[in-house]
Amino acid sequence: MTENKPFRFRGLKLRTRENLYGYAFISLWIIGFAVFTLVPLAQTFFFSFNRVTVKSTGIELQPVMWANYSRALVTDPNFVELLIEYAIETLVSVPIVIIFSMVIAILLNLKFAFKGFFRTVFFLPVVITSGPVIQELTAQGATSAPGIASTAALTEFLSQLPGYLRNPVEYLMTSFILILWFSGVQILIYLSSLQKIDKSIYEAASIDGASAWESFWKITLPSLSTTTLINAIYTIITLSHFSENKVIKYIFSQTYAVQGGIGYSSAMSFLFLFVLLLLLAIVFLVLSPRRPRRA
Amino acid sequence: MERNLTLKNIDLFKIRSFLLGSRTSYGLIFNVALYLLLIAIGFVYIYPLLFMFVTSLKSPSDLLNPMVQWVPSTIHMGNYEKAFRVLNYPTTLVSSILVSVIPSLITAAVCSLVGYGLARYKFFGKNLIFALIMATFIIPPQNTVIPQMLTYKDLGLLGNIFALILPAMFGQGYRSAIFILIFYQTFQSLPKVLEEAARLDGASDLKIFLQIALPSAVPAFIISIIFSTVWYWNETYITVIFLEGGIQTLPMQLTKFTQAYENLYPPGMVNIFDRLNEAVKLAGTFLNVLPLLVMYFIMQRWFVESVERTGVTGE
After folding, report:
1. Which one of A116, A132, A270 has the shortest CB-CB distance to B236?
2. pLDDT tens digits, one per residue of A191-219
3. In this structure, how many other beta carbons lie within 10 angstroms of the beta carbon of residue B217?
4. Which of A278, B20, B183, B310 is deepest in the core (most CB within 10 A)?
5. In the CATH hierarchy, which top-level class contains the domain B87-255?
6. What ipTM goes with this model?
7. What are the structural domains, with CATH classification, of chain A?
């Protein structure tokens, strides 16, 4: 086989050559992954089983086994509560972001004047959303749904609700616009996959007498199922990595705290990662495209 | 086959919904409803920005006056003068630009290389590489940042822009995974013919990449650089850990706004109208997003259109 001319190129077998050059192109990334992701990740994991003290000479490790984890889950009065709050808030936000961005994308996909202007408006938050800016806007009360968050009726209504319902509802009321602000990229992703749907399917459907409403449920929505999954994952990741995320802020504050330290915050980071993966798994199970049902 | 099935399904529903009009024209009612809906949602959407801008122009007496909601009685620029000084604007602006533009340029360059390798070569373990790239997107920064910080501390790079440049150089910059996928998509959708012709003419792989593939990936470069710049600008978790004590960026300075204000205008020393109020804070916030807004309105076409063109969504 090696005698076969077309399979040889500059003295190397084609497959070897492909392997070699492929790895050459991504070698930078592989080195980077090892040095800047894998090793620090392993180190953080290792830290989470230790009591870490930073000295001028270097760091000092003192093995504590699972103490950091049990402290986070059992002793710490805040962490578990924050973690549950984060999980609920994320699960509440994802459907809102998904539905909102899908609606906006479908509207923006219609033909009308000033489309560019509205696109600009709906993408604007992506450009300016940073932790400190959001923090300032929230602190000045600019992010709540206009007019409803401060009314007495609402406070009255909230006080009637049981605790586990009150927090998510309150979160919805006070940061409604904020949640919507996390839809910018998702709108674009929906728009681009809407434009990939073959127009002739809609034409055929309308010739057969389908209304736009029917076309939406039978053509648009099924074509967007993969995109919805991508958008849901993207939403979870952006919400979870956002520096104003309460859990992240807590972990950050504990890193430099005397009582906390690097070991403890590392343990919490891994618990947080575990919950994040759990959320991703839930969304994946709910949204992953099912086998087409027979009509 | 699937199409026929759908058609049969649709065939069952003959009644048309007149509210939504036909495929060729929407009808007047629908158009009015569409604009009302878009304007209403759009208003709610940018309400925080309008609120910020209007409030930042209010004088202290306007702030206290409940009658003044949306139209300040005078355009009060004093808030901006103070915020400008508190943020130490010229210096922080320049360092913010450097800290976001330089890593994003490097990120785009490295990600194009990686994306090209993934798109054009078949090699062993490619799926694993893709999985790991996704993993770098999922793993939160706090799971990797502390050991890096300790290493940079040992190397004396803490507070130095190199702390951000180094990961970017190796494709581990902020959200690099997304840019790798963008370039992967771009290169995959480009026809291979030119590259194969060049290969037959004896061009080396690197030369093919640099001279043939790269020029056709200009849109991907532009979108990667602007998105990366915006995300680096707005990222504060990593920047605070890596740069604190050294370079100050605008968002970092904004988090310390109250403290910095009270250093410049000590609360006990100034008269009541010069105390820190929400108008000054929001003026600071507006100064913070102003460069991004300017960039956005200049490059708006690229932000909104190129996502479709580069096919970020490609699965």
Report:
1. A132
2. 888 888 888 888 888 888 888 788 888 88
3. 21
4. B183
5. mainly alpha
6. 0.84
7. 5-47 (no CATH), 68-129+182-287 (1.10.3720.10)
